Amino acid sequence: MSDGEVDTPGVNMESIIDNLFTRLRIIAVDVEKVQRAKELLGSMQRRTTFMQLLGPGDDESVNKADSDLMLLHNKFSINSNILGNNVMSGETVEEENGEEISEDLCQVAFEEDRWHSFFPGFEILNTPFASDMIENRKCVELSVLQICERKLKAYLLNGVRCFMLNLFEGTQRDNQVLMVKLREAEISVSKEFGFPVVSTIVAKLSPRYQYTGALSSQFLQNGIKFIELEKGYKLNLTVNREYSDRCSMNNIYVNARFLLGDVQEFDFILIGEEIQLVVQCVCADHLNCCVASGGKLYAHMPVMFPGRCHRFHVSYEELEDLTFAREVGINVVVSNIVGTPAYLQNLEEAMAAMHCDGLRLYARVVLNEIQGCDGELNWSIKGYDGFLVELTAPTMVPDIMHLCPSAECFMQLAYGSKKPILFDPGYIDEQKLRVDPAHYFYTFYYPDKFVVPCQHKNQTRYFSLLQDAIFQQIAPVALANIPYCDHSHTGADSLAHAVVTASLEVHGVAIVVIGVTTRMVQKIAHFRPQATILFVSHLRSAEDYVSLYYNVTMLSYRTKFIMSHQRNIFRMAIYALAYLIKRKIAKQSDQVILLYNNEEGTSFPERYLVYKVDTVHFALHMAETLFPMAKDEKNSLRDIDAP
C-alpha cells in the first residue's frame, strides 16, 4: 500500500499511525488491568486446587496465594461485586495448619455435598434463562446499541466461550467498556467455578464502502426507525465517530474520512436510492450539505460519493479498527467483504503498516448471494484464516434456501481446510428461510460456531432444537462415510480421527487435549465429536482464538515453576479431570479420552488413552497410567502420600 492510497492533504501515514497509537494505548489500559487480574486469580485457583489434590508441599508455597490476593486487591481496580465482597474485605482468609490460604470453591470436595445430597448429580444454576444444548457452539454478537452487559455472566455460566463485536457500531470507548465488562464477567464466573474462564472475541471491521451510522437512541426509544429528510433542509455529514451511534437530522455519520479531501463544493452525494445532498462547504471533519432530494433515512444506508473519490482504497476507519483490536488484545478480525486478491493484498499491506500483521484475518461471505458454477471464491480459502458466513433476506417469506454449486464448493473447501466457519442462521431461526435436506451439511454440520444476537427477537430456539436434532443424526454417518485421507506428515490426522471414533464408541463425555499448540485441537474439531473438547495449555495466545473451533473449551494452565515433562503432563491431566468433575461434565464411571505428549521435546500429542473416571482416586490413577514405569520411579510424579 503506497502512501498515496491513504493520504489526504496535510495528512501522511506516519501522522495517522502516531495519532492512532497514542490514543488507543490509553484506551487499552483498563483492558490490560482486568487481564492481569484474571491471570492472578487463575494462579491462585491453580495452587489451591493442587494443594487439595496433592498436598501443601507440592511445588509452591501456598502462602503465595495470600500475597497474590493482596496484589489483586490493591493494584487492580476491580469492582467488589466481581470477586465478591468477602474477598475484598479479607474475610475469606482463614487459618489452616498454621498457614493462611485463600478460601475458594476449589476447596469444596469434588463430590458435590453443599446441598447435603438433596439434589444428587445436579447443580443449582444461577442464570436468568435456561441454556441450550448447543451453548458451546454459539458465538454471541454483542452490540453497544443494546444492553448486553447484563447477560454476559449468564452466557458464560451457560458455556458460551465466543463473542463478536461490531466495531462499526458505537465509539471505540463504548466497545472498550463492553470488553472490560466481558473480562470482568469472566473473573466473576471464574471465581464461582474455581477454575480459569477464558473466551475468544472476534471483531468485525468497519466496511470499506461508505455507510451511514446508527440512529440516535432517542429515536429508537420512541419507536422511530427512520428520519424524514425534506428538500432544502441543511445538515452536516460528519466523519467523527462520536456520532456513529447517534445520527440525527442535523448530524449524519459516514465512514469516509479519507474521502473528504477529494470532495468539492457543489458535489452531489447520494444516500440510498432517494436522498441526494449537495455539498455547500468542505470542512476538516464534516461537510455542510443541503438536501436536494428528500427521503427516509434509516440506519446503515449506503452512501455514494463522487467518482473522483478513492472509494476502494483502505479507509481510515479500517486502520482505526485494526489498531484498536491489536491494542485491546483481540486476535481475530473480520473483513466486511471477501473482495478480490488485490483487495486482500491491500488489506494485508495496511495491517503490516499498522503493525497488525499478527492478527488472524477472516472474511464475511453472504452464502446465498454466490452465483454461478465457476468457483469464484475458491482462491479465498488459502488467503483468509476463517470465514463469517451470513445469509441474505429472501424476497418471499418463507422461502427455501437456494445454494449455487459455487456456494456449495466454497463451504466444502472451507471445511476441508480445517478453518473456522462462523455461521449466522438468523433468517432460519426466524423461519424466513427453510433448509433443503440436500443442504443439511452446509448448514448444520460444517459450521464451527453459530452467531446469535445478544438480544433475541424471540425465544422459540427453533434453530437450536433443529440443529441439535439433525446433527445427532448426520454426525456419526459423516464420520463413517466421508472419504478420509491423512494429509499430515506425522500421522496426526489419523490420530485425531481415531480419538473421535473412540469417543463415539465408548460414549465419551470429554476429550482432553494436553499440548503447547492448537493444531491437534483443530484436527479433532474437524471430525465434529459429540464430546466436549477441553484444551489444557499454558499458551497465552491460544486463548484469543482457540474457542472459535467446534465445541472447544480452553482451560488455562500457566506456572513459572520448572518441572520435568512427565510431571508437568501429570499435573495438567489431573487439573483437567478436576475441572470436568467439578463442572459435572464427567461423573463417576464416565469415559474421558486423554491425549498428550508421551515423549519430551515434541510439541504434538502422540498418545491417547480412555479413562473411566473415578471421582475420588483419579490423581492416583493418572500417576500410574500416563507413563508406565517402574514402581520406584512413580514417586517423582506425585506427592499423594504427603500428609
What features would you highlight for this structure?
18 helices; eight-stranded parallel β-barrel; alpha/beta; globular; 643 residues; 25 strands
Account of the protein in words:
The protein is an alpha/beta fold and 643 residues long. Helix content is 34%, strand content 18%. An 8-stranded parallel beta barrel has the order 3-4-5-14-15-16-18-20. It is globular and about 85 Å long. The protein starts with 12 loop residues before the first helix and ends in an 18-residue tail after the last helix. The relative contact order is 0.10.
What is the oligomeric state here?
Answer: single chain
Radius of gyration from the alpha-carbon trace, in angstroms: 27 Å
Biggest sheet overview:
8 strands, parallel, barrel
Number of helices: 18
Going across the major beta sheet, what is the strand order?
3-4-5-14-15-16-18-20
Mean pLDDT: 81
